[in-house]
Write a structure and sequence with these properties.
Layout (H helix, E strand, L loop, with lengths): L5 E6 L15 H14 L6 E6 L11 E4 L3 E3 L4 H13 L12 H24 L5 H7 L2 H12 L2 H5 L5 H8 L3 H13 L3 E4 L2 E4 L1 H6 L9 H14 L2 H7 L10 H26 L6 E5 L5 H9 L4 E6 L4 H10 L6 E5 L11 E7 L7 H14 E11 L10 H13 L8 H10 L4 E6 L5 E6 L1
Parallel strand pairs: 1-2, 7-8, 7-10, 8-9, 10-11
Antiparallel strand pairs: 1-3, 3-4, 5-6, 11-13, 12-13
Helix pairs in contact: 1-2, 5-8, 5-10, 7-8, 10-12, 12-13
This protein binds S-adenosylmethionine (SAM) and FE2/S2 (inorganic) cluster.
């Protein structure tokens, strides 16, 4: 059964440099134009369009197949798309001049291409040329840097409902020639569209990057932009064994940091609450509570519970404003101080360390765990949420790379492994330690007093 009247597959396969492919022949343009044309001709509810991998006819790309008929089109150009939609998808008459149905010739072309690619790959290998995926990984900073610069300049807001490079550059206080280069690259990343020299936002960029949008994430993403600058000091950090940059101290740095933490926490808090919340929890201590996202999630789930947050003096005013916005000032208090030196209090049912331990050294974490144990009532639990490494510390990849994030940003922070947490928790006096895996990059270590 076909759910749609037609299902069109457009080959979007990329191939190594020097090998013909549908992607190199412009299939991305065909895909976009096809979707646009279907909307224009009112057929987008009847025709499903999907990208697909190589179909072997790479010397004749872009290739697309229309089902249920199984009609193959080759060498499709953007100017052919409207005709294919009108004639074939609307009226059932394939565009004969673009159809390829000579099965023996198609098979011969596919085999010839395959043999050519194999020979070429062997020749590249013999010549010692690096594989493309390795090259792509090395150049992975390019899209990231382009987007972060656009966010730093608030370029997506400057583009607004559409503008020429000159207009956008003037609004962003930037150079027009360079702005145009950046705008073009953002179109190539599908974060902007361009028509007749005018740039406009895509649904994705207008939702997440434009001032005034309810889901604008730019504030938190500026933290990633700040961190990017630190990552460029990685080589020096590896030599020195510690961060070589100053922590940003201005309020915009702190605001972006806490906004970024809030964005991460909003997604993760419900999983933590689900894994940890239980009847009988009355008093919660949230160390380094940041935007209070976890305290908010817990007290919302547990009627009668109260949370105390301890965070640094420059963060606490932000914490209070997040608590105020959630309407929970009566159930969550925020105290300014340092968890390394200030007293924790006592008789808590739960002590939370969400995204905290990676900031500190082993010695600092051991000391915090000991003091957390003392601050808990008997049977109370310490919950550590972090990017937890497997025992040999090489996986998961995110946790292993995040360790470097801590190297470039802290004096002695790191990602830590499950056996390390377990050992520190037991040494701190906890009776029981368990690991809870969460969906996503972070996990939990839960220690019961
Ligand atoms: C990575 S954020 C995590 C925030 C929050 N727990 C969350 O997961 O959304 C680290 C938090 O710890 C706070 N912090 C860092 N050093 C601290 C210290 N010595 N005492 C108290 N809080 C600290 C930071 O201000 C920040 O709010
Ligand atoms: S890359 Fe499209 S058919 Fe091979």
């Amino acid at each position: 059964m076909e759910a749609f009247r037609h299902h069109v597959f457009v080959c979007s396969q990329q191939k190594p440099e020097g090998v013909t492919s549908c992607a190199a022949a412009g299939s991305a343009r065909i895909f976009d134009t096809l979707n646009l044309e279907l909307r224009k001709q009112g057929l987008d509810d009847d025709v499903q369009v999907t990208t697909c991998g190589c179909m072997g006819l790479c010397d004749h790309g872009p290739v697309m197949i229309v089902y249920p008929e199984g009609t193959w089109y080759r060498g499709v150009k953007t100017e052919d798309v409207a005709e294919i939609v009108e004639s074939h998808l609307h009226s059932g008459r394939p565009v004969a001049r673009l159809v390829w149905n000579d099965a023996p010739a198609m098979k011969a072309a596919a085999l010839e291409h395959r043999d050519h690619v194999r020979a070429m790959m062997q020749a590249r290998d013999r010549a010692g040329i690096m594989p493309d995926p390795l090259n792509d990984m090395i150049r992975g900073y390019m899209p990231s840097r382009a987007i972060l610069t656009a966010l730093e300049l608030d370029l997506f807001t400057a583009v607004g409902n559409g503008g020429s490079p000159e207009v956008v550059a003037a609004k962003a206080n930037a150079n027009p020639r360079a702005t145009e280069m950046l705008l073009n690259s953002l179109v190539s990343l599908k974060l902007l569209e361009k028509k007749d020299g005018v740039f406009s936002n895509t649904p994705l960029s207008s939702r997440y990057f434009v001032e005034g949008s309810k889901d604008n994430a730019r504030g938190g993403l500026l933290h990633t932009a700040h961190i990017w600058h630190r990552w460029s000091t990685l080589t020096d950090c590896v030599r020195a064994g510690t961060s070589v940059s100053q922590r940003g101290s201005d309020s915009s740095w702190t605001e972006a940091f806490i906004a970024a933490m809030d964005r991460n926490a909003k997604e993760r808090a419900r999983h933590v609450v689900k894994a940890v919340a239980a009847n009988g929890i009355r008093r919660i201590l949230d160390l380094g509570g940041g935007s209070a996202a976890y305290s908010i999630a817990f007290v919302s789930e547990l009627p009668g519970a109260h949370a105390d947050i301890l965070d640094l003096p420059d963060v606490v005013p932000l914490t209070r404003s997040y608590i105020g916005k959630a309407g929970l000032s009566g159930r969550i208090t925020a105290r300014a101080g340092s968890m390394l030196t200030d007293p924790f209090g006592e008789n808590y049912d739960l002590v939370l360390l969400n995204a905290i331990c990676h900031m500190f050294s082993e010695e600092q974490n051991r000391a915090i765990f000991q003091r957390a144990c003392a601050a808990l009532a008997p049977g109370g639990r310490l919950v550590v949420q972090d990017f937890i490494l497997e025992a040999d510390k090489t996986a998961p990849q995110f946790a292993a790379l995040f360790s470097l994030n801590m190297l470039v940003g802290t004096q002695a922070g790191s990602s830590y492994s499950e056996p390390e947490y377990e050992q520190w928790m037991k040494a701190a006096g906890f009776a029981k330690v368990e690991r809870v895996r969460l969906p996503g990059p972070s996990g939990l270590m839960i220690a019961t007093r």
